Amino acid sequence: MSAGTGTDLSASTRDDLVGRLLEHCAQVCTTGDEGPIADTVVARYTELGEEVLRVGHSVVVDGRRGEPARPLVLLVGHLDVVPPTDADLEPRVESRDGAEVVVARGASDMKAGNVLAMAAFEDHDLREASPYDLALVLYAGEEGAADANELREVLAEVPWLRGAALAIVLEPTDGEVQLGCLGGLHAVLTFEGQQAHSARPWHGRNALTMAGEFLAELDRDHVRDVEVDGIAYRDVWSATQAWTPGLEPGPRPASSPVRNVVPGTFMVNVNFRFAPSRGVEQAEAELRERVDGRASVEVVDRSPEAPPRLSDPIVQAFVRRVDAPVAAKQAWTDVARFAEVGVPALNYGPGLTGQAHQRGEYVPVDALVAADVRLRAFLQAPA
Fold this sequence. Notes:
Layout: H1 11-26, H2 35-47, E1 51-55, E2 58-63, E3 72-78, E4 92-96, E5 99-103, H3 107-121, H4 124-129, E6 133-139, H5 151-157, E7 166-169, E8 177-179, E9 183-192, E10 196-197, H6 207-210, H7 212-220, E11 223-228, E12 231-243, E13 261-262, E14 265-274, H8 280-291, E15 296-303, H9 313-322, E16 326-328, H10 335-340, E17 345-348, E18 362-364, H11 365-380
Parallel strand pairs: 3-6, 3-7, 7-17, 8-16
Antiparallel strand pairs: 1-2, 2-6, 4-5, 5-18, 8-17, 9-14, 9-15, 10-13, 11-12, 12-14
């Protein structure tokens, strides 16, 4: 199969993409259970005669063509999805608001992107004509805890990936080219007072109300605009959890025996998402400065940022050839893993960000086709 770069793809190509997506979504692979789908991917590319490497439940398919070496482009996606619901367990084609969509768990996040990557990689005419060597990187563990994400392990165990000219992470981007990504910190703030009887609060100090001033500040000032390379990002501060250790009300708050206790300790989880104008260490110092000694601070999770790298020639080439809107990635993605090893990376995919993890998750077929055309426009263009 070889697709052109125009917008009028044949019905057979459209049907091929939809069929691929239905097949890919039929194998549900929640985080931690990617083994079977990894087996399927390995078997597919082994049968096609490709060189396949497996790291855990992640798969790398090496499409390099030897000498003369060409710039290497990685087509990157994660295999896992969040748990399905009864509204998206069965992959199917439906009509929504007059448009044809594929409904399935992972349809937008991010199996539609995986399908485009696989279809392009399997197009031998495209690979022969392309100025780039291609490799597929389909990895496990993206939707779970950061330490279980296998991409970092893949990049460590397959060292030639770190020499790539570009990594295209086909996460859902609403058809935009989304550059860079936010970094992130989760920190537990502990406000320490003195526990007391609620009838005689002067015998202690209420740790919960001690946190009030800080929380009010977050309510007033939790979004700040930051521009990096002419691209608008936003710093975001969010209090996402709060609790009084040992005094939780339980399932029936009205019957709790500890409602008359002034808490001596109150803990708040703060999630700071920061623009790629600075690194993790600077962001952590900024967080501690903002708390200003009012609570102890324990940073419990750190996610690195990724710069947009808009000035890189290959990123400029992608933006020019794809001819899609350019925006910031107002979230964290695995472009940050590539940034850690010095590989330029960007986010571009057909999925809808607003459909990620939704009940009845879907992707429009028109978006799938349009992204396929634009991705191929870059892969077929002169380097």
